[in-house]
Design a protein that fits this description.
A hairpin with a 4-residue loop joins strand 3 and strand 4. The chain has one domain: Lipocalin, CATH 2.40.128. Helix content is about 15%, strand content about 35%.
Length: about 140
């Protein structure tokens, strides 16, 4: 009986060690909170062939801990300028944000975070998106 307990303990410890979480080199856990710099935009011509084009921009979006989002540019569209301070609120659970600074303050803009890349979708007939990199 003692041998079974020892084997069970060794087996359990072995399973726990094999399942340990080793994310030291993973970017997938980068938090949404913080500054994101605009680096590229995508506007599809209508045939699905659109790709991201690199842009030179100082536009920054900041996600705060309290559920607010701010930008030194317009949150409501894909402009690359950084001369129009805007703000709003966001939901991590829904992956959306909105802003009373927009013409339609009820519209929820979608976003998707993948590591240090953030993609924001804008309301267009064809796909249009902006790509941000975590600073």
């Amino acid at each position: 009986m003692v041998m079974k307990k020892i084997l069970f303990t060794l087996f359990t410890v072995g399973i726990l060690c094999a399942c340990s979480d080793d994310d030291d080199n993973s970017n997938s856990n980068i938090e949404l909170i913080g500054n994101w710099k605009l680096t590229a935009v995508l506007v599809d011509p209508g045939d699905g062939s659109g790709t991201f084009s690199t842009v030179e921009s100082d536009k920054i979006i900041t996600f705060e801990n309290n559920g607010t989002i701010t930008s030194n540019g317009n949150l409501c569209d894909m402009t690359i300028s950084s001369d129009n301070q805007t703000s709003g609120t966001y939901s991590i659970a829904k992956s959306t944000f909105n802003s009373t600074d927009c013409n339609n303050s009820n519209h929820n803009f979608s976003f998707e975070q993948n590591g240090n890349i953030l993609i924001i979708g804008y309301p267009c007939i064809e796909p249009c998106q902006a790509k941000y990199i975590k600073e």
